[in-house]
Amino acid sequence: MRYAVSIALAAAIATSLGSVAVSAEMKIPANVQSAVGDQTRPAKDRERDAARKPAEAMAFAGIKPGQKILELMPSRGYYTRLLCRAVGPSGHIYGVELTEKEKADAKPAVPPDSCANVSADIQGASAPKFPADLDVVWTSENYHDLKVDYWVGGIPDTKSFNAAVFKSLKPGGVYIVEDHVAEAGSGGRDVASLHRIDPELVKQEVTSAGFVFDGESKILSNSADDHKGKVFGIKGGSDKFLYKFRKP
Asked: What is the DSSP letter of 12?
């Protein structure tokens, strides 16, 4: 599949703290195009690209060769396989799963065969210890899970969790959060029942840890989603937000 050389990223929004990111015409860099276009990626991954728009998402995040990236809850490794290619052999991906109650004896996922620059770990959700001096922390479609009672030791304290993310990043590093949109004003009401979270709650929680809101992309938006149903099986996919936060 061929990917456009450039995309128009979404117009930025003002946060309750007053920070504003300005929309811009941004090129998809060669390292990202190469990572997404790599035909050695599993076919099931490449089939998901049209819905997940990884080239645009990684361009928005500013993924560059040589970066050190923490991927939180990488699951089956869709983004692991993309990020490891995008950062190249001089970069590194740290995949960290959190210990679920039903998998208390679980072992870290095996890094993808095609990615020699990936290490995997599994940690408790309540007091994680992340690698230091990171360029990017990335989590997609699972921030809401931090508020569901899946985890050994119970639901983690989100403020402490985000503080650990903040500490792990170098100054100027970014925290990328993608998740399913819940109804405005619903907070964390629908995290377990619908697998959704109010974007404003995420913004408030992350900025309260010291981050500056640094922009939003609308590439994963779906205006046909009314935010009232479970995210699975929605025609065109659920409406998702994609936020970038920066450590000053």
From this structure: P
Place of tokens 């809101």: 213
Q: Say if CB 7 and CB 28 are below 8 A apart.
A: yes
Task: Give the domain CATH number at 127.
Answer: 3.40.50.150
- pLDDT at position 6 over 50: no
Those residues whose C-beta lies under 8 Å from the C-beta of residue 168, and which sit 6 or more positions away, are 70, 130, 131, 132, 133, 134, 137
Domain, as residue range, for 144: 6-246
pTM: 0.88
The type of residue at 117 is N
Give me the number of domains the chain comprises.
1
Contacts of 134 (CB under 8 A, 6+ apart): 68, 69, 70, 94, 168, 169, 170, 173
Name the phi and psi angles at 75, rounded to 5: 55, -120
| Residue 11 DSSP one-character state | P
